[in-house]
């Protein structure tokens, strides 16, 4: 039987009413109200780069995610702009800083940085083999405390700056350990986000 016109509207109203009565009967009035509240409650708002709260004025929103094993690539987001991701097809194994992945290019990239330049790093697969003694020292000058001990297949995310006076508060490292690895041969992926205060010379 195909219902059309006014009869169809009446049928829909009756079906909705029956469903409501059934929900009240099964769950009770309070539970039914909770069900309606669940469907009517707005989803939590997301801010730049998916942060749960907005950054204060003169701060930059960021999110770093290291690669997962050698399968899922890292992500680097700054001010809601995805700089590095598998979707953009600009990730590579090792250190993801722009598109730098070998020692010689890495040194050419790090040496001439201007004062106040922000540096975002997310590892993928193995970053340690991309580092020599000089590159580790340069990262230490950018505020890293973990880079000196970074070992084979460790996960690492880091935000530093040229000319930083203290050590960077934006750094995480997960050791490659057989006893605690999430993936076979690799530790779990690291995720870090936050708000970076702008230095006066960088303010627009």
Descriptive overview:
With 204 residues, this protein is of the alpha+beta class. The protein has one domain (48-197). The chain has 3 helices and 8 strands, in the order αββββαβαβββ. The strands form 2 sheets. It has a 4-stranded antiparallel β-sheet with strand order 3-2-1-8, with no helix packed on it. A 4-stranded antiparallel β-sheet has the order 4-5-6-7, with no helix packed on it. A hairpin with a 2-residue loop joins β2 and β3 (81-84). α2 (103-110) runs parallel beside α3. The longest helix has 36 residues, at 5-40. It is globular, with a radius of gyration of 25 Å. The termini are far apart. Residues 1-13 and 34-40 have low confidence and may be disordered.
Q: Could you report the average pLDDT, rounded to the nearest whole number?
A: 78
Decide which structural class fits the backbone: alpha+beta
- Residues in β-strands, percent: 15-25%
Kindly provide the radius of gyration, computed on alpha-carbon positions and rounded to a whole number of angstroms.
25 Å
Major β-sheet profile: 4 strands, antiparallel
Distance between the termini: 69 Å
**N to C succession of SSEs:** HEEEEHEHEEE
Helix content: 25-40%
Number of domains: 1
Give the overall silhouette.
Answer: globular
Count of helices?
3
Uncertain stretches: 1-13, 34-40
Q: Kindly state the number of beta strands.
A: 8
| Strand ordering within the main sheet | 3-2-1-8
Pfam family, one: ILEI
Subcellular location: Secreted
Keywords: Disulfide bond, Lectin, Secreted, Signal
GO molecular function, one term: carbohydrate binding
């Amino acid at each position: 039987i195909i219902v059309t016109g006014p009869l169809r509207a009446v049928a829909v109203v009756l079906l909705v009413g029956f469903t409501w009565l059934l929900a009240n009967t099964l769950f009770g009035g309070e539970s039914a109200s909770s069900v309606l509240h669940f469907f009517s409650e707005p989803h939590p708002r997301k801010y730049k780069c998916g942060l749960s709260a907005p950054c204060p004025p003169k701060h930059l929103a960021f999110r770093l995610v290291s690669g997962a094993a050698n399968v899922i690539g890292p992500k680097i987001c700054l001010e809601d702009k995805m700089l590095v991701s598998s979707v953009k097809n600009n990730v590579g194994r090792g250190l993801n800083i722009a598109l730098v992945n070998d020692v010689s290019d890495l040194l050419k990239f790090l040496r001439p940085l201007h004062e106040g330049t922000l540096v975002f790093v997310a590892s993928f697969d193995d970053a340690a083999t991309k580092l020599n003694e000089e590159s580790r020292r340069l990262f230490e000058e950018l505020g890293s405390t973990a880079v000196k001990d970074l070992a084979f297949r460790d996960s690492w995310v880091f935000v530093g700056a040229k000319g930083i006076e203290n050590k960077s508060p934006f750094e995480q490292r997960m050791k490659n350990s057989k006893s605690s690895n999430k993936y076979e041969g690799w530790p779990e992926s690291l995720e870090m986000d936050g708000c970076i205060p702008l230095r006066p010379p960088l303010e627009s």
